[in-house]
Amino acid sequence: MRVFISSFIVLVAVFLALRSVVQKVHELPELDLQKWWGSGSKLENQDESIRPFKIDLNDSMISDLKERIKTRRRLTQPLEGIQSEYGMNTIYLEKVLTYWADKYDFKKRFEQLNRFPHYKTKIQGLDLHYIHVKPKASKGIEVLPLLMLHGWPSSSKEFDKVIPILTTPKEGYNFVFEVIAADLPGYGFSEGTNKPGLNPLQIGIMMRNLMLRLGHKKFYIQAGDWGSQCATHMTTLFPDNILGYHNNMPLSSRLISHFKLVIGSLFPTLIDSDRPERVYPLRNHFKYLMRESGYFHIQSTKPDTIGVALSDSPSGLAAYIMEKMAICSNRDQLDTPHGGLANLDIDDVLDTVTITWINECIVTSMRLYAEGFYYPEISIVQNIPTDVPTAAVKFLYEVTYQPDWILKDKFRNLVRSTSYDFGGHFAALHTPEVLADDVFASVKEFIKFHRTAKNKSTK
């Protein structure tokens, strides 16, 4: 017992000593808020028009894709007794590919997406695509602008089930949302850049410029995955523009947070009384990350190489994307042929694969992994906390998990945190009603936060 107490005192002393070092907050770096990402040099007279856009899936494009699927080479069968432990189960994949070529209704699926108003506009030289849905005006109901940002390998399509819920008045709330669901540059129908350096921080700048273009100087954000990285940087860089931030992949990347994660492993139930088993013991967490992060390392280092294969074969593209969508929807189902994919509607999954194929954007989307970590501006901004009111929603099979005492290192005004014992990484596709309900409840807390802050300032 004496040894335990002595060790604890030493750890506390080390923690306090290191905290003074790792909690050092830097000033915001100087950034070009109009940096040019288009081809060639920056144009003096930039096109700032907003143009209606319709997804066009022509017959020749569909025929070519179907032919490529049907003339694929023979797939290697899984080993005896192996389901999805080695990756995509090719017996299951054969069934999905046959469905994609013979029964998936391309025209119907994309007409369904076209039910929303789509637009494109050039931001800093790149043509950005977004869905923009305004609710029907109702007396006494306030309309609030909400920017929604996706991650890899998605697009604004990920939000097509949740948009109707968010743009419909909800009982018990005196507000509804005007949704702007944007494709990140290089994803979906948005143009990619030919210049290095377009990292999540720079994308955050572009998204803020998009909202200003649309006339919204103040707005809310909902985001996950890479979209949440972009949005987190936005809350740090532009706190006066963002009224509240709803995050379904909450993560603090501050140095103090990494240290606290390790310290928390000594007393997990004291540190996190909510869901300590989701991250502790750390050996299980790291084992999972090591098992499933191969794609992450490839895309962070050599995205263009793997991109050649994925751009040439729709079957390979489908296997690559679906395997990650599966594991991120239920990592406990590796012992099944679908590996977790059955938790999502297969048409939604194939929408994502099809959008990636027809826009030839697998390489430009994967490059974000290579751009996302290696710039000093990112490290600086990551280590600066934000005061923007934030809400965290934590679904069971999210890729990563942090307890609130760590999240508050970055998000000092964490006004709401909810954990669910179901759901996964692609929340808007997997559990759209739950996600939408959480957004409504969180924005109610954001409004309350600002009202309280205003009352305090007037006293």
From TrEMBL:
EC number(s) on file: 3.3.2.9
Keywords carried by this UniProt record: Aromatic hydrocarbons catabolism, Endoplasmic reticulum, Hydrolase, Membrane, Signal
Subcellular location: Endoplasmic reticulum membrane; Microsome membrane
Highest taxon in the source lineage: Eukaryota
UniProt cross-references to SUPFAM superfamilies, sorted A to Z: alpha/beta-Hydrolases
Record-level Gene Ontology MF annotations: cis-stilbene-oxide hydrolase activity
Catalysed reactions, as listed in the record: cis-stilbene oxide + H2O = (1R,2R)-hydrobenzoin; 1-(4-methoxyphenyl)-N-methyl-N-[(3-methyloxetan-3-yl)methyl]methanamine + H2O = 2-{[(4-methoxybenzyl)(methyl)amino]methyl}-2-methylpropane-1,3-diol
GO-annotated cellular components: endoplasmic reticulum membrane
Membrane topology type: Single-pass membrane protein
Active site positions, chain numbering: 225 (nucleophile), 369 (proton donor), 425 (proton acceptor)
InterPro entries from the UniProt entry: AB_hydrolase_fold (IPR029058), Epox_hydrolase-like (IPR000639), Epoxide_hydro_N (IPR010497), Epoxide_hydrolase (IPR016292)
First-listed, main subcellular location of the protein, grouped into a coarse class: endoplasmic reticulum
Residues of the Epoxide hydrolase N-terminal domain: 50-159
Segment forming the signal sequence: 1-27
Family per similarity comment: Belongs to the peptidase S33 family.
PANTHER family: EPOXIDE HYDROLASE (PTHR21661:SF35), EPOXIDE HYDROLASE 1-RELATED (PTHR21661)
Protein name: Epoxide hydrolase
Source organism (scientific name): Mythimna separata (Oriental armyworm)
